[in-house]
């Protein structure tokens, strides 16, 4: 419960407390500290014991933030590990003599080691289930002699023509040795096969590993693999095996050499030899932020081909679009499809394959963590318009319907349930944050009146009203008007939704007719708190500048710099 709540109610952000960026200079940090010290120093509020108590608490927070950010070593630890890193006993002794860069590098090294140990302690099960469906009867009707004589007309025949189940688990034996047990069962048109393999991978050094493998399927199998890093930009991978069959011993060999061409590109050269023939393959892979490109040329026996594969990444939509072409001695294949991320660990994808002579095939895939289900559906043995159309449109329409009627309601219900659970777990903490924010606003009042008066005299930046929280359904920055957010005193009530009035805190942050807020959660600013934890929040500001009234609305995590003319309301004399 507590961990879930921590996701909504965050620990203090030292940069936000001082309203400085993560790249702020020592001079900017000192200036911010002096400004807030004048505002919250307990001695300034000694006439009111209640205000003095709150001022002392807030001042101590400001002072704590200043002490960390003004010390380069503590600041490096905080930037890397957060507030908890500063609370580790002995940390300041260990790292006092190290530079900020060395601290970050050491932390990254320790993090990698912890991750390796965590992975080695897990079984890491992986599995794939493939169900092949033959639905060619839907578009190409076959009649046998009996059906012709009886003149039978029935429902198209759809049958499962094959199934494959693959599963593997890892068992770490030592920090350098991992045993993997894998197996698969496959059946195709009534003929079944299966195999069981066991391997041991040994990390011989930081530059490579070796692996011994044995198994049984269509006869006993022995294998050996190795990986070696030659240089910073090159590595080799080699594998050889012996399969013992009733017809004799069948050897095989696969070796790959790879070289990094630039920051985003890698080239591969692979040679394969075995009972099925030999081939040499050259592959070029380029992976960037927006695209993944893969091209390959293979020359060998029994097949030679040229392939081209491009994937467009759309992270803003959690989606990937894919197009692939392949031409060779076996024929030609064109493929297009899309992959959609459903949750943190699961995704669905659909692809249409058009081939000669294979025909039209629809391939559906669902992945959840390390488990995958694949359903290839063979629709037609020839490339004709009808199966291509249905293979393209039906998955899209089905996804939209399922998403609208099933997935979206489930997601909203789960998010609301988690939010309510987190709010209940953090109710007392949230109440304390609200009380502290209100007390902070009271302490700011004198500074607010002085700042506003100074700005009004020079016709500078005057915050008329500022609201922070959840926008009404369907509202946008251009929909907002001065009447909707209210006008007048900053204490005046507002029915603008689940929001709080932050006019006083924002005016206190104005310096020389300019307001700058960072691209971080506004709830961590002095005088703010989160009025609707877990919901999307915005900041709406109505302000005067040079006798013109303006209004703007920005998302919580977006930076804000005023003045700027987003929506001019009217001219005031």
UniProtKB/TrEMBL annotation:
Subcellular location: Membrane
One term under GO cellular component: mitochondrion
Record-annotated J domain positions: 13-82
Coiled coil: none
Predominant subcellular localization, coarse grouping: membrane
UniProt-listed Gene3D superfamilies: DnaJ domain (1.10.287.110)
GO BP, sorted A to Z: cristae formation
Keywords of the record: Chaperone, Membrane
PANTHER family: DNAJ HOMOLOG SUBFAMILY C MEMBER 11 (PTHR44157:SF1)
Protein name: J domain-containing protein
